[in-house]
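Hey, I was hoping to borrow your eyes for a little while. For a while now I've been wondering how a particular protein folds. The fold is given in discrete form, as structure tokens running alongside the sequence. Could you read through the record and tell me how the tokens relate to the sequence? Take your time with it, there's no hurry, and the full record follows here:
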Amino acid sequence: MRKTDRFPVKKKGNSLWNLYSSVSFSKVAKNFVVIQIGRYTPFFRMKNWLYRTFLHMEVGHTTAFALMVFPDVMFPERIKVGNNTIIGFNSTILAHEYLIDEYRIGDVVIGDEVMIGANSTILPGVTIGDGAVVSAASLVNMDIPKGAFAGGNPVRIIYTAEQRAARRENNLKV
């Protein structure tokens, strides 16, 4: 189960219709501009600086957000990415979800030396352990253990850390 805080909406309309009751318009507008600059810049240090400085994300050393990565526009401060991690092309990292009668907010924690494949979506309240690999086009809707290889829509564990190590060892013997 993902770790999210749930907020019921009692006003008229669905939770997204009441968006600016949960987050200010000026914050969303500022974050959108910063994210758009980050999505298109080819300079990793600049992206990391933008995300740390203006979005208040925790971003580790030598972490690389590929072109077109879209961090959460409403609650980017709830995203933490470890050291030497790669977030693949056109991936989305969400820290919120707006439903009909409620909205949910959850921290996203991505460990050190994690590889997220292109076009993946990470949902709020998910933790991806150190050294994990998530294949391209995955919907990460659950925690991924340290060192695991996971993929799919929805994501599933393909190999545990131990199975990956055994496969590497067998490949070296051949």
Residues 95 and 137 are 18 Å apart (CA to CA).
